[in-house]
Amino acid sequence: MQLTTWLRLVPGRAFRGAGHRTALVVAGLPLHLAVVPLWLWLLGAMAASVRTPAAVAVTPLPLLLTLLVTPLLTAGQRRRYRALVGTDLPRPAVDKTSVVRRLTGRAVWRQVCYHAVVGPLFAVLDLAVLAVWAAALAAASLYVWIWALPTQWRVTDLGYSTQAAYVTVGGLALLFLGPRLTDALVRLETRAAEVLLGPSHTEKLALRVADLAESRAGVLDAADAERRRIERDLHDGAQQRLVSLAVNLGLARATLGDLPEDARKVLDEAHREAKEAIAELNDLVRGLHPAVLEDRGLDAALSGIAARLPIPVRVAVDLPRRPSPTVEAVAYFVVSEALTNVVKHAQATRADVTVERIGDTLLVVVADDGAGGADLAVAEGTGLTGLARRVASVDGTFSCRSPAGGPTVITVELPCAP
After folding, report:
1. What is the distance between the alpha carbons of residues 221 and 394, in angstroms, rounded to a whole number?
2. pLDDT tens digits for 172-187?
3. Residue 125 — pLDDT band, cuts 50, 70, 90?
């Protein structure tokens, strides 16, 4: 047999952490047995109520006392696991709006079930495991007890010595088994505590969804802040340098009249390229995050989009207060992309944009009188798909109604924090 196999059989390795787990078992006894007197009282009151109708009034008292001590016992269990084995039991979601809802919630009754039913059963198992430990220690140290006895009390015949050896070997075997029984019991108790004292599976999923939604909101806010930073850097840095270059080239064209024709053509071409670069950079900055949106809000930003389009666009914005920057940016880009599609594909003569806040929802409607026929179901890879994904990134809803012959109506609902 290999050395590693022998090491696995060495009892000393099983004792690693056994002290903390045994302490957990010992500390759990009073907590597991705390509700037993109350339920014995309840059973006695129920039996007395059968004989004496006047005793019926006493029957609810043990149950009420159980409800009162349940939070204290649960806190004690959490502290026991945290202090002795370093396990933090997750806390269930509790309705704090009403005392009645809190007392009638599933979380409270799961805790009552743990302390009143499961706890006493674990107390029996705890006592059994502790009895194994006590028997193991007493049996394994039998020769020590014999040696400690006075001389006149010792029994030295061979039979007694053989029995003592058997008892000692049995005690050593129990010492080998004790840590494993304790570890199995601690795992069983921990699992039951997580199920009954912690959140249910549905509550865990709800908490996970809430954490993911919060994390995604943080990522979106960070991305939006980064876009605004890039827009400011481009506007205040590269764009200003290009404007200065275009001005200098324009001055050179105006003041240097004795240049050769070839040099003047090069200068004219450079000036034209600089102006085109400024125009492209303006479009890029506006596509990242227009400064007017951050400074003056959706009304001014959408009016600017409408003014640049070749068809008339009516813009109606009714916002008593501005939404969050992320939601505001999504609404802006939805309208911008939708109007761009109207100009490119719809063959429309006019368009209408309506933005209003209804409760905690930002409603955005873009309509046109074009040819219609836009279908989101078959629009994979088109601008409509990108709009739907952008809206879904903030848990919004996107719908497009575009029958053949028109009109096309895009409706977007974006959630706003109250």
Report:
1. 10
2. 888 888 888 888 988 8
3. very high
Q: Is the pLDDT of residue 2 over 50?
A: no
Whole-prediction pTM: 0.48
Residue 248 has pLDDT above 60, yes or no: yes
The whole-number pLDDT of residue 47 equals: 66
The identity of residue 232, as a single letter, is: R
3-state secondary structure the chain: CCHHHHHHCCHHHHCCCHHHHHHHHHHHHHHHHCCHHHHHHHHHHHHHHHHCHHHHHHCHHHHHHHHHHHHHHHHHHHHHHHHHCCCCCCCCCCCCCCHHHHHHCHHHHHHHHHHHHHHHHHHHHHHHHHHHHHHHHHHHCHHHHHHHCCHHHCCCCHHHHHHHHHHHHHHHHHHHHHHHHHHHHHHHHHHHHHHHCCCCHHHHHHHHHHHHHHHHHHHHHHHHHHHHHHHHHHHHHHHHHHHHHHHHHHHHHHHCCCCCHHHHHHHHHHHHHHHHHHHHHHHHHHHHCCHHHHHHCHHHHHHHHHHHCCCCEEEEEECCCCCCHHHHHHHHHHHHHHHHHHHHHHCCCCEEEEEEEECCEEEEEEEECCCCCCCHHHCCCCHHHHHHHHHHCCCCEEEEECCCCCCEEEEEEEECCC
Residue 197, φ and ψ in degrees, nearest 5: -95, -15
Is residue 149 over pLDDT 60? yes
Counting Cα atoms < 13 Å in the Cβ hemisphere of 376 gives 17
Tokens standing for residue 401? 């109604």
Q: How far apart are CA 89 and CA 194, in angstroms?
A: 6
Q: Are strands 351-358 and 361-368 parallel, antiparallel or unpaired?
A: antiparallel
Report d(CA 107, CA 110) in Å as an integer: 5
Answer whether residue 42 shows pLDDT above 80.
no
